[in-house]
Design brief:
The chain is an alpha+beta fold and 535 residues long. The protein contains 16 helices and 20 strands. Strand 14 and strand 15 form a beta hairpin. The chain binds flavin-adenine dinucleotide (FAD). Residues 15-16, 66-73, 77-78, 87, 117, 139-141, 144-145, 147-149, 151-152, 154-156, 219-220, 224-225, 323, 325, 369, 468, 470 line the site of flavin-adenine dinucleotide.
Amino acid sequence: MADTKTYFIGQWDTFHNNGPFPTRILYDMRLEQSANMPSFFDRFNDAAGEVQQLIQDCINHNERFRAYGSGWSLSPIAHQRDRMLFTGRMNLKRIIEPDDLYPFSTFDPNDLIFFQCGNTIKEVSEFAAGRGKSLKTSGASNGQTIGGGISTGIHGSALDEGAVQDSIAGLNLIIGPGPEDIVYIERHSKPALNNGFAKKINARVIRNDGLFYAALVGLGSFGFIHGVLIETENLFLLKRYTRKIKPRQALDLAETLNFADSEFNIPSELDPDGKGTRPYHFKIFINPYNKKEDYVAEIMFKKDYRSDYPNPIPEIKKAIYKDLPTWMARFAEKHSRLIPKFIGALNGQIFPNLDHDVEGTLREIFWDTTHKGPAFAFTFGVDIQDTRKALNLFIRVANEEGPVPGAMALRFVKASQATLAFTRFPMTCIVEMDGILWKGGENIISMEDFEKKLLEAYIAAGIRFTIHWGKNAAWSFPGLVDYMYGNNDDVWKDYRSALLSKQMADLFSNDFLNTVRLSDYRVNTPEHLVDNLLQ
Ligand SMILES: Cc1cc2nc3c(=O)[nH]c(=O)nc-3n(C[C@H](O)[C@H](O)[C@H](O)COP(=O)(O)OP(=O)(O)OC[C@H]3O[C@@H](n4cnc5c(N)ncnc54)[C@H](O)[C@@H]3O)c2cc1C
């Protein structure tokens, strides 16, 4: 039997110390050992039973319940005052056999892997690599759990791949304590697994596109994600370059992603006509406090896999322009993490030498992060056509209201179909600032006020935007979610209310969901919304 330890912790914090927040109970679940229970399905179903018991116990005590993964979200989205379950040890995985597949499925079973929610991106990638497969994309590093990652919609800068949730083919949710409360949800327009597989995980099948897309970015509030079915692809290599780039060139590229006609290119990556080829990944690092300094571009091209490439890990470990939080942390350390000294340094030339060119698989290039400690991250999504306007406005607010201790980056991702995906524009430019947490005082604006100023400026300028659910923002800003999602927040609430009972919708809510006004339950939602549309 799975075994859950109960800790009365009093308070809980995120990985980057954005709390602490009051929390009564932390559950830490360990799976039954494989020596005692060798079958994948027995262990998986045993864990499901344990989660259902925890939910029942919450019901008995009229308390709420929330799973969390690595606590890497910097917003309080993972926090629950009552009871929180740490999923990091729930890391079973199973390959999909041809006879698990839905009869007319267009998926190749070799590409599909079923993971329990607590597998980290690193574990997912390692397991996939052992089968010659790779995730299609990941974030800039690999410590998030798969359950937590899709719940906020994690992304990298893989232009044409989308975010991590866009490779999910099926979701296994636990939505209550009863036998009917384990469901397996997938698209009716693109079924993946057959009813026999669902039966083996004791799940009721719902093939329904609308429900699937609503649950995909579920903010931890669409039930407990127990398992996910991921579509992988054959291993590939990424050739990574970092180069200085003129701000004008960078922004022209950002607004068009027209690499063929750009003045900026990598000579070894041109097509036979001498035009730039489309990269897999494009990211721009920006110093918001020095207009004269060139930007730095990180650009990667996808290559066929071959085994005779040099080990990239030593270079990647040293890489400076890998992910913004790590870069910021190193920069801050050089300036003793003292905010005035640090901000002073940002006024100068901050970008050091470029990294060496390297080649490696996705999991090697987007390697471990080393940075711990207090940090913040502001992350907006805008249509790429608005990149210049959004970036310039952010920089203006940072200079006029700040300065605040952070540097900026731009990343690019195509639209997700998930109802509440923040990568929702046809091509989203992610405008982000990362840095070290600061406290407001006489000489510096508070973080909360700065967050509000940013929103006010964007709204006043008529910029359409979204915000990464796992990042810092003035989440209580009136009408924020309506402004960002139009009608989609209503669609999301409808599906959630149709799938969950009122009691369970409340149990899976938290303060964050109340703050962003997504927790209200719609009593008259038609039940047919969550019908199984393909037997
Ligand atoms: C160093 C660092 C680098 C980052 N880089 C990126 C990046 O490149 N791209 C990007 O998009 N984001 C990035 N982020 C943000 C982070 O990846 C996301 O916030 C992500 O969701 C965190 O995953 P997690 O496993 O830590 O989830 P948590 O933060 O623990 O939880 C996130 C949400 O998922 C829910 N949840 C977790 N597990 C389950 C489950 N089993 N069932 C139901 N709900 C669940 C929680 O309740 C919560 O609502 C970064 C964060 C850090 C600290």
